[in-house]
Amino acid sequence: MDLNNILIITITLFAVIDMLGNIPLVINLRKTYGEVNSVMSTIISTVIMLLFLFTGKSLFNLLGIDVSHFAIAGSLLLMYFGTKMVIGFDDSVKNKERATNATVFPIAFPLVAGPGTLSTILSFRADYTDMEIAVAILINAVIVFIVLKTSKWIQKVLGPNGIELMERFFGIILISIGIKMFLDNLLIALQTFKGIV
Fold first, then answer.
1. Is the backbone of residue 64 left (phi > 0), alpha (psi -120 to 50) or beta?
2. How many angstroms separate the CA atoms of 135 and 108, rounded?
3. Nearest CA to 112 among 147, 80, 78?
4. DSSP symbols for 120-176
5. Rounded to whole angstroms, how far apart are CA atoms 42 and 22?
6. Residue-wise pLDDT tens digits, 147-176
7. Which of 114, 115, 118, 135 is nearest to 7 (CA)?
8. pLDDT by residue (tens digit) across 78-123?
9. Domain extents for the chain?
10. Which of 70, 84, 104, 125 is the most exposed place for a label (fewest CB within 10 A)?
11. Pick from 3, 12, 1: which is nearest to 119 by CA?
């Protein structure tokens, strides 16, 4: 395992999940639906991410999709989510607020283990080992738990401007990582295509 790779994956997942940016939503859900079970939300979202890590590739093989192809799609999603974070646009808040059980939906899924997170995890398999990705997932699970437990305190410390600044900052990081992932895997896909032709 490469510690540098684990750090890259951890930071990317942290930016995609964007728990700091979602603190206002978590607080709103607590007000609307009562106390959220932080432990259960963390466990459910972690199990979803790990299951997708180890079974997603088999599913794609069944469908005839290569990991590099999915990585390209994932990189485009990263750039999309990064752009949304930078410009402050969120088209899913209304859907999230319709939840009847905030612990499972929408916090565990899709807030933490959503389509962006799952596609990013599978995209990583083109460049990193399963163990490196699994460790990064577990590190992020700890971060998710801490943020859920201390969301009110974090919002008070950072304030609205601090949370917004963090969201914009990680949005730019996401766009940069998405561009790198896109170019790397486009090259792999083109080489594979040349080999077939």
1. left
2. 19
3. 147
4. HHHHHTTTS-HHHHHHHHHHHHHHHHHHHHTHHHHHHHHHHHHHHHHHHHHHHHHHH
5. 15
6. 999 988 887 888 888 878 877 887 888 788
7. 135
8. 788 778 778 876 554 444 444 446 788 778 887 899 777 888 898 8
9. 3-196
10. 104
11. 12
Query: Which of 12, 14, 53 lies closest to 140, judged by CA?
Result: 14
- Confidence at residue 93, expressed as pLDDT on a 0 to 100 scale: 46
Q: Do the Cβ atoms of 118 and 56 come closer than 8 Å?
A: yes
The angle at the Cα of 151, spanning 147 to 153, to the nearest 5 degrees, equals 120
Assess contact for 66 and 189: CB atoms under 8 A. Answer: yes
pTM of the model as a whole = 0.72
Q: Return all residues near 88 (Cβ < 8 A) that are at least 6 apart.
A: 164, 167, 168
Contacts of 104 (CB under 8 A, 6+ apart): 40, 41, 44
Contacts of 44 (CB under 8 A, 6+ apart): 103, 104, 108, 109, 113
